Amino acid sequence: MRACYPGSFDPLTLGHLDIIERAAPLCAHLTVAVVHNPSKQTLFSLAERQQILENQLAHLGNVSVDHFSGLLVEYVRKMDYQAVVRGLRDSSDAPIELQMARLNREMLPHCETLMLAAAGHLSHVSSSFVREIARLGGPIDQLVTPFVAAQVKQKLTSKEAS
Amino acid sequence: MRACYPGSFDPLTLGHLDIIERAAPLCAHLTVAVVHNPSKQTLFSLAERQQILENQLAHLGNVSVDHFSGLLVEYVRKMDYQAVVRGLRDSSDAPIELQMARLNREMLPHCETLMLAAAGHLSHVSSSFVREIARLGGPIDQLVTPFVAAQVKQKLTSKEAS
Amino acid sequence: MRACYPGSFDPLTLGHLDIIERAAPLCAHLTVAVVHNPSKQTLFSLAERQQILENQLAHLGNVSVDHFSGLLVEYVRKMDYQAVVRGLRDSSDAPIELQMARLNREMLPHCETLMLAAAGHLSHVSSSFVREIARLGGPIDQLVTPFVAAQVKQKLTSKEAS
Amino acid sequence: MRACYPGSFDPLTLGHLDIIERAAPLCAHLTVAVVHNPSKQTLFSLAERQQILENQLAHLGNVSVDHFSGLLVEYVRKMDYQAVVRGLRDSSDAPIELQMARLNREMLPHCETLMLAAAGHLSHVSSSFVREIARLGGPIDQLVTPFVAAQVKQKLTSKEAS
Amino acid sequence: MRACYPGSFDPLTLGHLDIIERAAPLCAHLTVAVVHNPSKQTLFSLAERQQILENQLAHLGNVSVDHFSGLLVEYVRKMDYQAVVRGLRDSSDAPIELQMARLNREMLPHCETLMLAAAGHLSHVSSSFVREIARLGGPIDQLVTPFVAAQVKQKLTSKEAS
Amino acid sequence: MRACYPGSFDPLTLGHLDIIERAAPLCAHLTVAVVHNPSKQTLFSLAERQQILENQLAHLGNVSVDHFSGLLVEYVRKMDYQAVVRGLRDSSDAPIELQMARLNREMLPHCETLMLAAAGHLSHVSSSFVREIARLGGPIDQLVTPFVAAQVKQKLTSKEAS
Predict the structure, then answer these.
(1) Is A127 tagged catalytic?
(2) Of A36, D82, F33, F85, whose CB neighbour count within 10 A is largest?
(3) Chain centre distance of CA F58
(4) What is the predicted pLDDT for the residue at D135?
(5) Is the pLDDT of residue F162 over 80?
(6) What confidence score (pLDDT) does residue B38 get?
(7) pLDDT tens, F93-105?
(8) Under 8 Å CB-to-CB from E160, ≥6 apart: which residues?
(9) Counting Cβ atoms within 10 Å, is residue A109 exposed (0-12), middle (13-18) or buried (19+)?
């Protein structure tokens, strides 16, 4: 199975990493695909988000990093992926994920979405919490890897300086 | 990926069939595994449920039918499956599925559960609705295949006669 | 609009009464239809549940009481109702109600289900809570009318005596 | 029953159309009421949204199109509607719909909200998905009528040209 | 137990008041803590929100009003509160509240969040509804106290005049 | 605050233990109250469930074990507790907990229910899962303490022998 795991990864969290490390063994190849949405402001640039992913996923032999803009199904069609991987943190993530999975299959019938349950101890981890806590000066060490934590702190320091 | 799709299949519905036909192309091999729970009364016997599945899944080259009793994770461990496939009919199925997926990973860490969204037009289809409607003499033609509908009617007729 | 409001009404609660009194003005005629399910044990007999309803709904000119057994859609078809009225106590009632509404439309396409939100102060009222609290000797005065409360107490007393 | 079906209709989707066509036979008259919110940016102007609705609902004899601004209950009071019609796409729509239905009844006690379940095959259809997919150049033919699809494409082309 | 009840209180609603009056008897001391978020626009200034709270809570002997900015857990740590009080209006409030409660305990292990169910007749009351209805000229008398209603009207009049 | 934590505790899980250990420091005294429901079959007798609790909670100075039958609010009234403690494992526990909390306040207005979020890594732990897994011969070491695991195994062995 050739699959992709799309997301903003702004930044990569322990929740994302858990899904990637668990999905990879099920796939012949897994592409982590960073969404590039020019009209949405992000903490890290597209290039930075890709670099962080490449650094952090180097230990996974069958995982590569890519990016796309526009419709996910167009990207899936072009790259000929068989499946899209998504994580469900809590049952409250299910409504929007089911709607998007159905919408995507309607546009591209063979495009299956495979949902994995986040590990229970990571069910509260999200990129937006990471950004918000870091901006308020709080600890993010239990939400991201040390490498990502350092990147976030450096980014926020350079932003304040500018 | 070698996966199994466990369930009672009492009887096989169009909802089950949709998940099986969509999951099969993602797997090297998919085993549809009928749960045998001696303490739970079913409309069809274990052998009957397996026969219906074998009849209805004959067109799928990489799908086979099996059964198990006891813990799902024990069966997964013994057969060395990499993943368990489950369908989500509606977002309200998510809470129990997440709980079971987490419980199973705690007992068998590499046992991943892959959840697929039921097609929207099948989101209300369940085996228990099939049995209840058939018992009340209603139409089940939009919930199961013609073959299964005939089996259900024959079974109910023979039960009433006895 | 000719509509029916089906239910077990075992017994009629203030929640049911609220839905009936609010739905009646929207209908040319509203039939409150007691489900008769011979295989399910109830506190009150079918005749008793109908009598309670007739007593309590006498002030509503365009409301009558009826009963049915078997499939709701068969009853709707036979009586030529245009709509089925249902109350949603809390958002957690929605999943099963949506499934049943879709299932019923699949069997009888013109059979619409109209869902009304229970009043907030009645969102915790259910017949099963009434029966359970009464059996444990607790107060049910805020869940049912004084007439129904008296009927419940009398019924439980006569059951214990027998 | 005189009812209204309020919404932004930016643009009209197959989901809206399904609710209108199913609610109309239950009403003496059904008014589709376009919300005019000057502080919210829309793809189509108020006049355009009304024109699309009038064009697409011409086959429904007892349906008319109107608009309102300000509080829905003020509009309902002024026009003396007996009920407000709303569609529930998925059970996850229920919480906000129940809150608004209760709030509206508190401000205008006889203002009933009748919720209908969207057809299962339309449960993932929303105006915001239509706009987002169209902006990204994707297909919207299974979400809106051909007439609306053409209007959306023309609108986006003229916006890009300007 | 020394606890705090954090929120924006923009403005204080009958829902907030209900939670405060019910939580206070359970606490040795309860601090109502107004969140000061400089990047978020509010109807009332921080000082105004605090004044309204002080006016409306004067009858509660063991309740005081405070404010904080930044991370809630930092404030809880500094003030040495044992618990954070939160209201659940409807079951749909639970997902975000559980996520935040878990996140806060991860950052400050002894920081417990105690959730209370809003009274049923207040389950649809929120500050954002109060602001929206008031802006549209609707009645807010059943959502806030007369004092708060007067403050809201005066504030909106002075804003329009400016 | 004098509070009680009611439940079946059939048997005590790590989820229960987590709630008790976190709630105890917030209370002057916390009573763990075992529900005795003669019409419901349990794995452990009332006496056994109390003994397990007493053994496992001996390290908590302000916690005692009790039991009750009948209505919870009657027990709360008699013992003059100020609050009832409940754990929410997942957001899907919220609907029934909110209904019961409201029902209990209606019968006993000062009876507050304080809901705590289960720790994320325990969100899938329930007594019924413990019993089911143990009956099927599976591992329960991550759901209960070693002491409870031994009690469960001994109980199931003695049941099979009888």
Answers:
(1) yes
(2) F85
(3) 16
(4) 93
(5) no
(6) 87
(7) 998 999 999 999 9
(8) none
(9) exposed
Minimal Cα–Cα distance from C160 to chain F, Å? 15
Helices (H), F4-126: 14-23, 46-56, 72-79, 94-107
Residue C89 appears among annotated catalytic residues: yes
Active-site residue list of E: 16, 40, 89, 127
Which residue type occupies D73? V
A137 DSSP 8-state letter? T
* Residue reference for tokens 């057809």: D119
Smallest Cβ–Cβ distance between F120 and the set A91, A92, A124 belongs to A124
Summarize the confidence of residues D93-101 as an average pLDDT.
92
- What pLDDT is recorded for position A160? 79
3-state secondary structure of A33: strand
- How far is Cα of residue E75 from the mean position of the Cα atoms in its chain? 16
Residue tagged active-site, from C40, C59, C91, C162 = C40
What parts of chain E have a pLDDT lower than 70? none
Three-state DSSP state, C39: coil
F88 CB within 8 Å of a chain B CB = no
Residues of chain A scoring pLDDT < 70: none
Q: How far apart are CA F148 and CA A157, in angstroms?
A: 51
Beta strands across the sheet bearing D83-88: C63-68, C29-35, C2-7, C83-88, C112-117, D112-117, D83-88, D2-7, D29-35, D63-68
Which among A92, A133, A138 has CB closest to E95? A92
- Please, which residues have CB within 8 angstroms of residue D162's CB and are 6 or more apart in sequence? none
In sequence order, what DSSP letters do the residues of D42-105 get, joined into one string? -SS-HHHHHHHHHHHTTT-TTEEEEEE-S-HHHHHHHHT-SEEEEEESSGGGHHHHHHHHHHHH
Residues of E in contact with C92 (CB under 8 A): 91
- pLDDT tens for each residue of B42-93: 999 999 999 999 999 999 999 999 999 999 999 999 999 999 999 999 888 9
Q: Measured between beta carbons, which residues in chain D are less than 8 angstroms from residue E92?
A: 94-96
Confidence (pLDDT) at B118:
96
Instruction: Please tell me which of the candidates D92, D124, D137 has its beta carbon nearest to residue A103.
Output: D124
Helix H, strand E, coil C: the string for chain B is CEEEEEECCCCCCHHHHHHHHHHHHHCCEEEEEEECCCCCCCCCCHHHHHHHHHHHCCCCCCEEEEEECCCHHHHHHHHCCCEEEEEECCHHHHHHHHHHHHHHHHHCCCCEEEEEECCHHHCCCCHHHHHHHHHCCCCCCCCCCHHHHHHHHHHHHHHHHC
Residues of E in contact with D70 (CB under 8 A): 136-138
Which candidate in F99, F100, F105 is best for mutational testing of the C interface (most C CBs within 10 A)?
F99
**Residue F92 pLDDT > 90:** no
Q: Establish if C90 touches chain B: CB-CB under 8 angstroms.
A: no
Do the Cβ atoms of A18 and A118 come closer than 8 Å? yes
- Buried-exposed string B93-128: b where 16+ CB fall within 10 A, e elsewhere: bbbebbbbbbbbbbbbeebbbbbbbbbbbbbbbbbe
Q: Is C127 a known active-site residue?
A: yes
Residue F36's identity, in one-letter code, is H
Q: What is the pLDDT of residues B97-153, one digit of tens each?
A: 999 999 999 999 999 999 999 999 999 999 999 999 999 999 999 999 999 999 999
* Helix residue ranges, H only, chain C: 14-23, 46-56, 72-79, 94-107, 127-135, 146-161
Please report where in the chains the tokens 């063979």 appear, as a residue: A110
* pLDDT at residue D159, as a whole number: 84
Residues of D serving a catalytic function are 16, 40, 89, 127
What domains, with CATH codes, occur in chain B?
A: 2-161 (3.40.50.620)
Taking the CA of residue E99 and the nearest CA in chain A, the distance in Å comes to 5
F136 and B107 within 8 Å at the Cβ level: the answer is no
Average pLDDT, chain C: 95
pTM exceeding 0.90? yes
